[in-house]
């Protein structure tokens, strides 16, 4: 079953004989009649949710131990995305299962718009889970404010060395490398499982690989594999692109620098993940812990000249995404090619824990057989200053991507204003043009648009944005 494309396993699949259920063509949910109600307390999995910062795909070189565990003995999602390629909106989507236009955190300044009653930690606390947060929470969150619905926390004010933290209500400086601090605090939290019988939820959020991308001292000079770019780096002819991309100045050398620095910071994340695995094994909890690993957004390595996130191009919204849960039948090293996203994490965790949320979720449980044909990806410009990407929304499928830019901006609270008028459009045939070099709508005739199916895509995008 090592190359089975889509493990069809419900949270109760292990009651039906794990591997047999996983390999079956029929969704396990339909097969399993035992345990029709919520998962019993004895079988509820622990949850380890790891969210890295600004980590694009093609960074697996720095994560051999993570990949060996979570992809080699779990599930690798080959088509993982975030629905808003920006830290705070994406993290809010991870915790709620909602699009940013529904949870309200449309930019990094509007973290307090999130309804904390809709979060994973609130549902899990209510269901009797022990909960802990170790690392970054939400951008613009005041450090002295305790994160709601966590029993224990070491909340990081973003930084790499000798940073400020809120540890269980006390703001303090902790000397040392922050990924190591996060690792040790998480291990202490896990250790308590030896004497505390409650299932637990650990939300682990290192600052790597966010700028300034400071590596741990022992990795500061680590040689990384050579990289000679890709066709989108830096893309010589951008005449068919929006103005901010025409003006982008990133070079191959810039992309190489960002990539090398990101890889070096991720080496410490890999060490932490290995330590978590070893601890779970020592506790006898490796089997029944649902582990999910995702980045909050990707990052450009000078693709189209862009060395940031926040854009509708693939390097910004495609992310590494792994899941492992041996007791749930997801422990044997499979590849899942569905279009999946950060909004699917909360539904998956609640499904595994046997919890029905009381708020509407946009994502779907990855433990179900649900498969979407496209995804909405959206982003808002904060403020009215010139430059940078305008507000945009995008229809993303496996073989195509259609993007609209709008005359809309948000204030610091995420409140939207503007005419909403369409300013620019892009369409890429991803099968023929995976690096998004040819915008088929540039100088397209009305007949060209009909042939590409643009009216239907535009209508679907409008529906998705309103949903």
Automatic annotation (TrEMBL):
<feature type="signal peptide">
    <location>
        <begin position="1"/>
        <end position="30"/>
    </location>
</feature>
<keyword id="KW-0378">Hydrolase</keyword>
<dbReference type="InterPro" id="IPR017850">
    <property type="entry name" value="Alkaline_phosphatase_core_sf"/>
</dbReference>
<dbReference type="InterPro" id="IPR006311">
    <property type="entry name" value="TAT_signal"/>
</dbReference>
<protein>
    <submittedName>
        <fullName>Sulfatase</fullName>
    </submittedName>
</protein>
<dbReference type="InterPro" id="IPR024607">
    <property type="entry name" value="Sulfatase_CS"/>
</dbReference>
<comment type="similarity">
    <text>Belongs to the sulfatase family.</text>
</comment>
<feature type="domain" description="Sulfatase N-terminal">
    <location>
        <begin position="45"/>
        <end position="355"/>
    </location>
</feature>
<keyword id="KW-0325">Glycoprotein</keyword>
<dbReference type="InterPro" id="IPR000917">
    <property type="entry name" value="Sulfatase_N"/>
</dbReference>
<keyword id="KW-0732">Signal</keyword>
<dbReference type="Pfam" id="PF00884">
    <property type="entry name" value="Sulfatase"/>
</dbReference>
């Amino acid at each position: 079953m090592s190359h089975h494309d889509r493990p069809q396993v419900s949270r109760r699949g292990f009651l039906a004989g794990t591997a047999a259920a996983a390999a079956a063509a029929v969704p396990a949910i339909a097969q399993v009649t035992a345990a029709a109600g919520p998962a019993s307390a004895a079988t509820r999995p622990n949850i380890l949710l790891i969210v890295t910062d600004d980590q694009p795909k093609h960074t697996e070189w720095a994560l051999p131990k993570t990949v060996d565990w979570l992809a080699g003995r779990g599930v690798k999602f080959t088509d993982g995305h975030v629905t808003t390629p920006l830290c705070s909106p994406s993290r809010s989507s991870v915790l709620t299962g909602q699009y940013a236009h529904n949870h309200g955190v449309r930019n990094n300044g509007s973290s307090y718009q999130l309804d904390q009653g809709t979060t994973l930690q609130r549902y899990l606390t209510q269901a009797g889970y022990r909960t802990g947060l170790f690392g970054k929470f939400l951008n613009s969150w005041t450090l002295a404010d305790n994160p709601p619905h966590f029993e224990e926390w070491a909340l990081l004010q973003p930084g790499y060395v000798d940073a400020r933290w809120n540890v269980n209500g006390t703001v303090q400086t902790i000397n040392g490398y922050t990924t190591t601090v996060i690792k040790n605090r998480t291990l202490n939290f896990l250790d308590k499982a030896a004497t505390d019988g409650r299932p637990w939820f650990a939300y682990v959020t290192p600052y790597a690989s966010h700028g300034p991308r400071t590596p741990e001292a022992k990795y500061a000079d680590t040689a990384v594999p050579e990289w000679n770019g890709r066709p989108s780096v830096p893309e010589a002819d951008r005449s068919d692109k929006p103005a901010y991309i025409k003006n982008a100045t990133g070079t191959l050398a810039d992309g190489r620098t960002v990539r090398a620095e990101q890889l070096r910071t991720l080496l410490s994340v890999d060490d932490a993940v290995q330590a978590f695995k070893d601890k779970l094994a020592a506790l006898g909890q490796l089997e029944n812990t649902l582990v999910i690993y995702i980045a909050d957004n990707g990052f450009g390595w000078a693709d189209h000249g862009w060395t940031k996130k926040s854009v509708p191009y693939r390097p910004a919204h495609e992310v590494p995404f792994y899941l492992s849960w041996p007791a749930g039948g997801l422990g044997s090293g499979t590849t899942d090619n569905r279009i999946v996203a950060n909004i699917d994490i909360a539904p998956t965790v609640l499904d595994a824990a046997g919890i029905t949320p009381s708020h509407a979720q946009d994502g779907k449980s990855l433990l179900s057989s649900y498969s979407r044909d496209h995804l909405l990806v959206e982003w808002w410009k904060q403020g009215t200053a010139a430059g940078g990407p305008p507000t945009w929304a995008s229809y993303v499928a496996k073989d195509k991507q259609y993007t609209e830019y709008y005359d809309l901006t948000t204030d610091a609270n995420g409140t939207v204003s503007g005419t909403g008028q369409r300013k620019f459009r892009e369409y890429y045939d991803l099968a023929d043009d995976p690096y998004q070099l040819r915008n088929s709508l540039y100088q397209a005739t009305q007949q060209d648009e009909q042939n590409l199916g643009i009216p239907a895509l535009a209508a679907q995008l409008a529906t998705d944005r309103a949903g």
